[in-house]
Amino acid sequence: MSLPRTLGELRRSPFSEERLRNRRVKDELRQNLITRLCRERNASVFPGIVGYDDTVIPQIVNAILSRHNFILLGLRGQAKSRILRALTSLLDPHMPFIAGCEIHDDPYAPICRRCREEVAGRGDETPIAYLTPHDRYVEKLATPDVTIADLIGDIDPIKAARGGHELGSEFTVHYGLLPRANRGIFAINELPDLAGKIQVGLFNIMQEGDVQIKGYPIRLPLDVALVFSANPEDYTARGKIITPLKDRIGSEIRTHYPATVEEGLAITAQEAWTRRNGQRLDLPKYVQEVIERIAFAAREDKKIDKRSGVSQRLPISAMENVISNAERRAIHNDEKVVVPRISDVYAALPAITGKLELEYEGEMKGADFVGRELIRAALAKTYDEYFTGANMNQVVQWFDLGGEIQLSDSVSASDAIENLKEIQGLLEKLTPLGITQKDGTEQQVSAAEFILEGLHAHKRIGRSEERIFKAGEKKPEPQREKSFEPEDRPYRQRRQFN
Known about the structure:
Helix content: 40-55%
Low-confidence stretches: 484-498
CATH architecture of the largest domain: 3-Layer(aba) Sandwich
Shape: elongated
Strand order of the largest sheet: 4-7-8-1-9
Strand content: 5-15%
Number of helices: 23
Distance between the termini: 115 Å
Number of domains: 2
């Protein structure tokens, strides 16, 4: 069906129905949300948002049903911007407006002078254009240099000169981002970074529903849904949300990091670039779990600043680096399948250290040292998930008797497997990982290395910086207090009396 192109055609189309005419954008969001909830009772309201079904999403639903402006408050990497952008899925697929209008005026009730004069002069021949949901979303990253003119608008002397208008005429108005978001969604990311005197400029639109542009005795009754995001760290580090503005925000919704490793795995699998156009990828589950647990370990580590948080981008970036290192090895050794190993996780340190804000103790030890500690902790936890109660004495004994093996991150699977076969009983221990000796060489090497790294993480065997696995360091026996022989006792007694 073709869309109406003039005001007359629009009045004879379904767009003239009472439920669509003069409908506010918050009512539109509310009605479309109700329709989605009725149609998809068991489906997620916002597909692609993982881990919030029982916490954040219900609060967002309540805010939309209440027609609230709301703010998402959370640490970095908690999908705040993605959620705000997902709100466009609740907008109508087509929204008519008067063609050429900078603020997307409603054809039935225009608010700017140009559109009012055009409707009065052309009537049913007034041309109509349409906005998609994407066109109706305006986003601004708050920075200290943002001005009121950027958000609300200002006088444009160039318009006055070209059109021959007086500076006081409405035709000389330059509209800011907020008026240009009319009949849509206006999002401000990192709200505390906005200077306090600029935040004041949002008061009217949030309470009275209009804005006043500098120098003009007119108020524009805009129709905008306002949404914000903020990081709690920013309240003290860079700025704050002024109290009157905070009071005008209908709902404050707190986001959070994944509550379980499974949720984290789902997010990383969704976001990480794993589908490469090169060799076939076989990504072991235990490698994924190690990568995910690095973020969980970092969020609990005292050497890392908890106020800053550890973004979910850490496991996503690490996963991509791990696959790339395995891909490089496969290309170098002409292997047909890419199978990441634990050594690839250590090679991905550059994707980990940059995501950590260290406390004083962490700064003293260095980012690389902290990163390696996190990998080791994640590795030990993952190893326990598969091998708790498993008897690895035969493998440990092989190293205690002087056995050594080097497994660099660049050695080919065919060379590595020959060395691994020398370790008595190692390849028979792969079953809990779902690997048998019938599987490919690459999979066996990856699984065997995981066991060795797990034993090293639990300090049952040792490993050098050159990735040479060897016997673990023996703990020194506690020294006993020196006992005195009988012939020494008289001397000891004499010293006591003297």
